Amino acid sequence: MAITDPSEDEFLAMIGLALWSVENIDASDELIEIAARNRTEIVADLTAQYRCTIGTEAGASRIGMLMCVLQEFRRRVMSMSSDYQIYLMIGAFDESTLMCKLPVT
After folding, report:
1. How far apart are CA 23 and CA 37, in angstroms?
2. Is the pLDDT of residue 79 over 90?
């Protein structure tokens, strides 16, 4: 994966997109609709900013790269969760260990 150096606005957009991700949770239809609307608005705002600064083509490429970074974060979180479960099974951690209290995805 190419190295990405997100601007402050891009970083905040990625945080917003990550916080409004409801793919792996049991969410109500209303929450799913709100999340989709907010994610769409975040991407639309980022697209408008790119249109004024770096152009439509470069902006689309940049949004694609940011989405890839977000997907890599999700992949790493899922990997960490399974790693912690394995360590717990082999006795590397006990129930009082803070890492074992992390939510399982």
Report:
1. 14
2. no
